[in-house]
Amino acid sequence: MKIKHFKKLIFVLICSFLSGISTAQSSYQFHSHNDYAQEFPFWKAYIHGASSIEADVFLKDEELFVTHTEEEIEPNLTLENLYLKPLSELAKSGKLRKTQLLIDLKSSAQPTLKVLMKLLKNYPELTKIDNLSFVISGNRPGNSEYKNYPDFIQFDHQDVSNLDEADLSKIALISKSFKEYSVWNGLGRITAPELQKVEEVIKKAHDAGKPFRFWGAPDTKTAWSRFAAMGVDFINTDKPAEASAYLESLDNRNVELKDPISVYHPKFNFDKNSTPKNIILMIGDGNGLSQISSAMIANRGELTLTQLQNLGFVKTSSFDDLVTDSAAGGTAMATGEKTNNRAIGTDAEGKDLVAITEILNEKGYLNGILTTDYITGATPSSFYAHVVERDDSNAILEDLKTSNIDFFVAAGSSDFNKIQDEFVQKELSEFNDFEDRTSVFLSEESLGGVEDRGNQFPTYVQKVLQNLENQEKPYFLMIEGAKIDKNGHTNNASGIVQEILDFDKTIAEVLKVADKNENTLVVITADHETSGFGIMQGNLEDGKLEGGFLTNDHTAVMVPLFSYGPKAELFNGVYENTEIFHRILEALNMEK
């Protein structure tokens, strides 16, 4: 016997005695096709949650071998060793979950079934339970003979033309060759005429009350997703581990926006060569180009953000790593210098850096921060604090007390007692002037998702801007949409889209004010991209898309920067994140 197959057998025999196996199935069922060809038949598919597992069987010398052809038979690779014994151990231990064993007969039906019936009599723990189905495929008897077999035997029916005549009580599922209906290879999109044929045959099976499977079908991520959407009940795959991971996360990666948001179309009436009075820097935490694209697709092809005409791309690496965190990314934008990850407002040696808020304070500017994060979050604190560790919240709050921040809007009022001597806490309706250093809170603790808070953040931003426009001083605002990043870390595509749409509503409020006063430079970018997000498929008409993720961490990909208002053209091109600081000062005709 080959060493490779000997190892397979040893592994299976060991695993068959394990009673503590815990497996899970996704909401989409898949069928482990050609399971005998896996490195570890049965176990790989079962552990990864397969609902249906295929065993190709050939009868020789009254023994049922697992093989595709007689020539490939190996003595110890039997149906009993590879499938029935492991199933039996799981059943006896009470660990067997609902599973379908599809036995694909490669030898003549009647003699093979006769030996199978005899063999299964030795396993009453398998034939008398609801969790296991034995389904005969391949060389089957005629459908008129289905009734001659015991209740624990059912059949994989492969003809949709005679469902009215067939004994449906003996049919476990209906399977058809995909190639009868389409030549699609599982990449791109299936053509409309072929899609119609595919959907029709699935419907015939479902109208008969039976689950459906395609065999000979494309075996790609795109195909798995399409088949899941079409309602294929058992998705055929030779890659059970990959299919399991993909299908298990599919619902969390699918997005459908039923109610698109309105889009503001800016007027572009400003003098592009004039010096701006006000600066608004908007940072979507973790907001890469794919994230923006996903929200645009969900919103039927438009965002307020995508109306802007000046565009740059920003390199995001920190001083000590190719991939930045929010602390180093925020510090680069706030101070114009690279620093180590986790450092806030300090250089690579730990020395304090001068933030743009400190420079502008000396020029008579009001400095404000508005964020859906805590005020001590890495991005907002980069604009006022000087600490080498982003988690040192107490030191960050001490720096906030002595900072040049005149007001802020943030989550987390529970920490306010630590800074209440320096900031007057107000409700939004009470925030009408800038005589006192003021704090306004969105929540007591961490802010919830958009589904909980609604239009809260755009509304707060709108009110703050209204108040700023009613006074004479120039102002600098840092406005952060912080929750895009959180949903990237959890690989929640719908959450990403919802948070970007909330950020886009906020952008609309900012651009309305910029259009009204015609003297505000708006810079919109991100500190980094989170999750390696990609758009796998979707359609604009329905606002649907499927996202994919490389990681649950940050990446080093460049992020887009959009600018609007006087001197917006300074931000075109490709440059380091530190340039944002320097170009803002250049737009204001200031030096560091």
UniProtKB/TrEMBL annotation:
Entry keyword set: Hydrolase, Magnesium, Metal-binding, Phosphoprotein, Signal, Zinc
One Pfam family in the UniProt entry: Alk_phosphatase
EC number, UniProt record: 3.1.3.1
SUPFAM superfamilies: Alkaline phosphatase-like, PLC-like phosphodiesterases
CDD domains on file: ALP, PI-PLCc_GDPD_SF_unchar3
Named cofactor requirement(s): Mg(2+); Zn(2+)
Domain of life from the UniProt record: Bacteria
PROSITE patterns assigned to the protein according to its UniProt record, in alphabetical order: ALKALINE_PHOSPHATASE
Signal peptide (residue range): 1-24
InterPro entries recorded: AIM6_PI-PLC-like_dom (IPR039559), Alkaline_phosphatase (IPR001952), Alkaline_phosphatase_AS (IPR018299), Alkaline_phosphatase_core_sf (IPR017850), PLC-like_Pdiesterase_TIM-brl (IPR017946)
Database matches in SMART domains: alkPPc (SM00098)
GO molecular function, a single term: alkaline phosphatase activity
Family stated for the protein in its record: Belongs to the alkaline phosphatase family.
Protein name: Alkaline phosphatase
Organism annotation: Zunongwangia endophytica
Highest classification ranks of the organism: Bacteria, Pseudomonadati, Bacteroidota, Flavobacteriia, Flavobacteriales
